Amino acid sequence: MICEASNFIFKPPPLVSRARRVLIKPNAGYPLPYPASASRETMNLIIESIKQVSDADIIILEGTATGESIYPIYQALGYDFPRVLMLDVRDCIWVEVENPLPHPFAVATFWVPNVVLSSDYLVSVSPFKVIGGTGNFSIRNLLSLLPASKYKSNTSVGWGALYELDIDKVIADLYFTLPFDLGLIDARRVFIGVDETVEGKTEQYGKIFVGEPYEVDREAAEAAGIEVGYLSLIEAGKAELEA
Q1: Are strands 21-26 and 121-131 parallel, antiparallel or unpaired?
Q2: Which pTM value belongs to this model?
Q3: What pLDDT score does 180 carry?
Q4: Which of 47, 76, 129, 233 makes an SS bond possible with 136, Cβ 3.0 to 4.6 Å?
């Protein structure tokens, strides 16, 4: 669903009212302000809306590509929400989770933080970013839930070993292995850059995309007029599971 940002109200789905634990995954791996990272304003809107309908524990979880602490980045982005537990992927207990696809595209199992599996409702929050000509939306945001120390290559930091496998295939596998309930893309402004770690150009857009992660990423890709490789793979994976 595409909404006008000027009058957007976040309405938590009914499942949230019954949840004991809600986990929010922001795109916040670098100390760069919105629209390079999920904005404090949008995060606060989501959190306060959840509190109005639920007594669930609310957790924010993110990790860095370098494996360094996420907490200085939380601080730089103004993530100081009351009664919210802020966690770092590197400090979590990781468990190996099997990809449910009969024929995985690239990865048969993933190491993921146990707190993700023990949460009742999962939300991915990302800005509207086009990096190197491809979309970096709500599903790709899930990559930094994976511990960088488990997936670094010999030649690079971050998730180099996964990039060597074809990152679009990895992202598609991750979509099925970590089935997030909701994706929100904050497209009040669009960020266009060549790399995650450097400043790019921004454009006013004035929209919010919210819904099932595959659907919102597809809508965002169509709006941007770009091809996003993992979306066609997810379509194929859905067809295989339904066959």
Answers
A1: parallel
A2: 0.94
A3: 97
A4: 129
Residue 75: per-residue pLDDT: 97
Three-state DSSP at 50 gives: helix
Residue 186 has pLDDT above 70, yes or no: yes
Question: CA-to-CA distance for 17 and 191, rounded, in angstroms?
Answer: 33
CA distance 145 to 33: 20
| Mean pLDDT, residues 174-188 taken together | 97
CA distance 112 to 89: 9
* Cα Dmax for the chain: 48
pLDDT at res. 41: 96
Nearest to 224 by CA among 127, 124, 123, 125: 127
User: Of the candidates 90, 201, 183, which has an alpha carbon nearest to the alpha carbon of residue 140?
Assistant: 183
Q: What is the pLDDT of residues 112-122, one digit of tens each?
A: 999 999 999 99
Q: Which residues contact 224 (CB under 8 A, 6 or more apart)?
A: 128, 130, 135, 190
| CA atoms of 140 and 154, how far apart (whole Å) | 23
Following DSSP, what letter does each residue of 127-184 receive, concatenated?
EEEEETTEEE-TTGGGGGGS-HHHH--SS-SSSHHHHTT-HHHHHHHHHHHS--SEEE
Domains of the chain: 2-242 (3.40.50.11440)
